[in-house]
Amino acid sequence: MRVVSCNSFAPVDQLVVEDRPSLPLGEGQVRVAVAACGVNFVDALIVQGLYQLKPTVPFVPGGEVAGTVVEVAPDVTTHSVGERVFVTTGLSGGYSSEVVVPAFRALPTPATITDAQAATFVQSYCTAWFALKYRARAQEGEWVLVLGAGGGVGLAAVDVAHSMGLKVIAAASSESKRELALAAGADAVIDTANEDVKTRAKELSGGGVHHVYDPVGGDLTEAGLRSLRDDGQLLVVGFAAGEIPKLPANQILLRNRRVTGVDWGGWTVTHGAENVQLLADVIAAVGRGELHPVVPRTYPLADVAEALTDQLERRAVGKSVLVP
Ligand SMILES: NC(=O)c1ccc[n+]([C@@H]2O[C@H](COP(=O)([O-])OP(=O)(O)OC[C@H]3O[C@@H](n4cnc5c(N)ncnc54)[C@H](OP(=O)(O)O)[C@@H]3O)[C@@H](O)[C@H]2O)c1
User: Fold this and answer.
1) Comparing C-alpha atoms, which of 319, 323, 302, 264 is closest to residue 121?
2) Residue whose CA lies nearest to ligand 1 atom number 22
3) Domains of the chain by start residue, with CATH
4) Which distant-in-sequence residues (6+ apart) come within 8 Å of 213 by Cβ?
5) Gap between the Cα atoms of 120 and 134, Å rounded
6) What percent of the chain has pLDDT over 70?
7) Cα-Cα-Cα-Cα dihedral of 153, 160, 287, 323, to 10°?
8) pLDDT of residue 279
9) Distance 217 CA to ligand 1 centre (A)
10) What is the mean pLDDT of the chain?
11) Please, which pLDDT band fits residue 317 given cuts at 50, 70 and 90?
12) CB of 318 shorter than 6 A to ligand 1
């Protein structure tokens, strides 16, 4: 099998693509021939040792894949060869032409999406779903400002919010990202490179938004906080801009605003059963065609450094996959 190996925490161009013998198949496991490995921003942080959780090196990066079952352990009755499945591998293990996993981790791919889409929706959609439904408890008709709306978790939030009947303002730095957000159901867009986010969000929402979904951080966070109406809440999702913002507490006090943490990954560890339900709800909504995971850009597995650099340097629009 062909894998990407992270042999030490280092810049993404130090990743090595190599051939290895296939892994043995144990009891209760299935072997999946991987058609697409989902690329996430967090993968770039993990390989550099910049994420709060650090796998033991060497490791194969990547957390989500999709493909076809090619071998089933004799004791497994739930799966059969030829079945299309997607797998969440966790912090690592995904950038590989095959994975061997416990059968329960290989979930049937909805017929409505391709393998590439199946390899890229779990992390982004579960985060968005958890943020808007579980943390924000957002209600139909409310306004949400989505920052980084042309990126992975931002675009998923636009889609999830639209499906919930929220009114969505999508903020992004480039025309192509804003176009993608509009196609995903955004009602209005803000050009973060040229427009004042607070002023525009207040104008568009008639006085302030109910929720701000923030996977970006940096200066945009305070602009988002200031665009909230009475009792509005800022959802802290991530810091793609690199800088962890410090917020003026008076802007939280004023208008009785709230700041809410969103740690879907951490929550899955402490709330396993609830996460199974959350994932089932997301998959069902995808299967019904209510959610529309974006068609990702594809890179050959050997171009992993380019794919991750595009992510780190803001060129990634929507989602990306590596094709082994
Ligand atoms: N809390 C959770 O449970 C959870 C789950 C998944 C991911 N995350 C986090 O969410 C963040 C975004 O992930 P993602 O997959 O959506 O990433 P992404 O696809 O790369 O999108 C991030 C967006 O952030 C904006 N950005 C601003 N400055 C940037 C910079 N210096 N470098 C890169 N992007 C920059 C870009 O939008 P513009 O060009 O429009 O500014 C970009 O499209 C990451 O920090 C990730 O770790 C959190």
Assistant:
1) 319
2) 151
3) 2-120+294-323 (3.90.180.10), 123-265 (3.40.50.720)
4) 128, 131, 132, 136, 144, 145, 146, 147, 154, 157, 161, 235, 237
5) 21
6) 100
7) -20
8) 96
9) 9
10) 97
11) very high
12) no
